[in-house]
Design brief:
The protein is of the alpha/beta class and 382 residues long. It folds into 2 domains: 28-48 and 278-381, Aspartate Aminotransferase, domain 1 (Alpha-Beta Complex), CATH 3.90.1150; 52-273, 3-Layer(aba) Sandwich (Aspartate Aminotransferase, domain 2), CATH 3.40.640. It is built from 13 helices and 13 strands.
Length: 382
């Protein structure tokens, strides 16, 4: 078969990919690897390691790694059901909350359908429409950098299948009160799924973190999306979960995903973490204290600081718009990484995760030094 052999040896031929590959953006992960001395303030991680009891649970589970994990995540779903008083069959587990988001896009969206979300918001949201062929309808944030829910409601059509609300919002750190979310849900038709992405809800002081669960009884089209990555210090384990108003959605999510999507160690770690709520609350309180202190001191440097309800803040200035890249590079030279606003849809901003009090103290000194060395930096710092 000389024709086939010729094709095999034609190195110039390129692989052919599905058309959607060209539409899907590359996730803008922070460049946080390669130096062990960096203080990581770029990815909204917890600066505190997992609780000792969680590490012990991981170690206890490790000898069983020769077996597949429970594909139903039964123990973890049962503990989440007890915590939130939601039936286990209405709880979906994921390899991080992103896994559930992407599965929701695959289960709900297709060509001709529409997806609504605010922008800037979580960087994974654009993947859902790009992968499915649905039309993304993006709605600018309001003048306080929060979701403009009335504007989002006006975009709902018969083609709308999914609405994403990130509250508190990533990257702007702002949040809306639950009463505003309730009013919005009353305007959403039953055929439209609303995912309320609450990855940072433990840090939100506007409402109790458990308050939104009551909305599930009123709205079968609602999903509360949460994660163990942030408050529970389990970014590396990758465990997310969704409290759903409908069992059918959980079944659909599981249909479109690979089996065993949450590994054994992750299930064990998350289950153990749920048993230590008091210690988690103490860590959250420490982060909120850093939030208050950092907000005041960043403002004193001449930066505009959003009203944060998360474990990170969103700052801006005219100087950053002109010298964003230089600021990032000089901070990295001094041992700190933060997130560039240009990578998150809003040039001229920085997203800064809160570290320990010692890390934050050193970071503020470094940032002040960097700003003073920039053109007009001395004027800015007054």
């Amino acid at each position: 078969m000389p024709g086939v052999l010729a094709l095999r040896h034609n190195k110039a031929m390129a692989l052919e990919f599905a058309a959607r590959i060209s539409r899907i953006p590359i996730y803008p992960a922070a460049e946080s690897y390669g130096r062990e001395d960096l203080v990581l303030l770029a990815s909204n991680e917890s600066p505190y390691p997992p609780l000792p009891a969680v590490i012990e649970a991981i170690q206890a589970a490790a000898p069983a790694l020769n077996r597949y994990p429970d594909p139903t995540n039964s123990a973890l779903r049962r503990r989440l059901a007890e915590r939130h008083e939601v039936p286990p069959e209405r709880i979906a587990i994921g390899n991080g909350s992103c896994d559930i988001l992407l599965a929701a896009g695959e289960a709900l969206l297709e060509e001709g359908a529409e997806l609504i979300y605010a922008w800037p918001s979580f960087s994974v949201y654009p993947h859902l429409a790009a992968a499915s062929g649905a039309r993304a309808v993006t709605v600018p944030l309001d003048d306080q950098e929060r979701h403009d829910l009335p504007a989002m409601a006006r975009e709902i059509t018969v083609a709308t299948r999914l609405i994403l609300i990130c509250n508190p919002n990533n990257p702007t750190s702002t949040a809306l009160p639950l009463t505003a979310i309730e009013e919005f849900l009353e305007q959403v038709p039953d055929h439209v799924c609303v995912i309320l992405d609450e990855a940072y809800c433990e840090f939100n002081l506007l409402d109790d973190a458990s308050a939104s669960v009551a909305l599930l009884a009123k709205h079968s089209n609602l999903v509360l999306l949460r994660t163990f990555s942030k408050a529970y210090s389990l970014c590396g384990a990758r465990v997310g979960y969704a409290l759903c108003g409908s069992e059918r959605l959980v079944a659909a999510l599981n249909q479109v995903r690979q089996p065993f999507f949450c590994n054994l160690l992750a299930q064990s770690a998350a289950s153990a973490a749920l048993e230590h709520g008091d210690e988690i609350e103490q860590r959250v309180a420490m982060t909120v204290a850093e939030r208050i202190s950092m907000g005041e001191r960043l403002a004193a440097l001449g930066l505009q600081v959003s009203d944060s309800q998360a474990n990170f803040c969103w700052v801006s200035s005219d100087l950053l718009r002109e010298h964003e890249r230089e600021v990032l590079e000089r901070l990295r030279e001094r041992g700190f990484i933060v997130r560039a606003g240009s990578a998150l849809g809003s040039p001229g901003h920085l997203r800064i995760s809160y570290g320990t009090s010692e890390q934050d103290e050193r970071f503020l000194v470094a940032l002040a030094d960097v700003l003073e060395q920039l053109p007009a930096g001395e004027r800015l710092a007054r």
